[in-house]
Amino acid sequence: MAKRNKSYNVARPINIDLSRVRIGGNYAAMLRAQGNSGVTSAKINPELEPAHIASEREEYIEKIKNWMREPNWCAGYSWLMLREHYDAYGLTPDEYYEVAKVAINTDPHQMNRLRKDKVSDVRYFELCKIMASQCAFSNVDCEKLNKGTQNGTYKIANLVLDSLCKETADWYVCDAVRGVRNVAREQKYMSERDAAQLLFYMWLIVHNGLVTGVSDKDITEFVDKGLVIPMDADKYIVKLTQNAQKYPCTGLMKSVRLGEGVHVPEFCKKAQGKVLDIYEEVIKREKAAGK
Questions:
Q1: Whole-number pLDDT of residue 32
Q2: What average pLDDT score do residues 75-100 get?
Q3: Is residue 220 a contact partner of residue 250, using CB atoms and an 8 Å limit?
Q4: What is the pLDDT of residue 286?
């Protein structure tokens, strides 16, 4: 009988014996003696703990991080377990933040698994930066972002567009673009100019109105209002040129739709032509590398 192929698509839940994890010194010991499972609120200061306890703790946290890095049958399975059973893991805010960075870096499309109530506004912004740098923009709490830093939503959305060059799948490009477009259109968490800048940048590099939801009429209106000027086009061309030198841009090139950008101000039309030239250079580079 032929052997069955080994499956790599089975979730492997982590087994952690929390009774062996020593948390928080004398106060936590008292809670354990009382049978109180609420030791999660006790903070750990490794400098005040015996060396062997600090070592055990580091090993425990690293075990959770490694679990987050494992490919599972369902993306975000480990992340989901930590969300649904947060208290059982006994993490301090600092530890949860470190674990969250690993989890989001592993799968940036799983921001809905994050316990936002367990991270500060500033740390939430930093976690969103990890997400955005991987061409993802999903389940974003814009209000919390803006509390984390001034114009936080605009900054993260702009980083997403900068990162589109990294993505090789057009589906993920479209997904990220839709998220940014919806927030920019709403104009609840950013100024009219910032929203216009995002939509123009998106229109310029994606080249597909069906994906961006931005028409030539929209672009003309932005220019007429003074929300987009030639200097903006030059700025985005420079950014795209620099990014295209480092990343494949294939997801963006798959999103190109010829024949658009016809009825727009002249400087916008020229800018789109330059973008196509950049993509053409990328194609030549990839063909040369293939040889």
A1: 44
A2: 90
A3: no
A4: 83
Residue 135 exposed, middle or buried by CB count within 10 Å (0-12, 13-18, 19+): buried
Q: How many degrees, rounded to 5, is the angle at CA 248 between CA 199 and CA 200?
A: 10
Is residue 103 within 8 A of residue 110, CB to CB? The reply is: yes
Report how far residue 196's alpha carbon sits from residue 232's, in angstroms, rounded to the nearest whole number. 11
**What sign results for the dihedral spanned by CA atoms 187, 190, 192, 198?**
negative
User: In terms of Cα–Cα distance, which of 188, 186, 189, 223 is closest to 203?
Assistant: 223
Written as one string, the DSSP assignment of the chain is -PPPPPPS---------GGG---SHHHHHHHHHTT---GGG----GGGS-HHHHHHHHHHHHHHHHHHHS--SSTTHHHHHHHHTGGGG---HHHHHHHHHHHHHH-TT-GGGS-GGGS-HHHHHHHHHHHHTTT---S--HHHHHHHSTTHHHHHHHHHHHHGGG---HHHHHHHHHHHHHHHHH-SSS-HHHHHHHHHHHHHHH--HHHH---HHHHHHHHHTTSS-HHHHHHHHHHHHHHHHHS--HHHHHT--TT-S-SS-HHHHHHHHHHHHHHHHHHHHHHHHH-
How far apart, in Å, do the first and last CA atoms of the chain sit? 43
Its pTM stands at 0.81
Above 70 in pLDDT, residue 278? yes
Both structure tokens of 26: 């004398």
Give Dmax (Cα) for the chain. Answer: 76
Return d(Cα 120, Cα 123) in angstroms, integer. 5
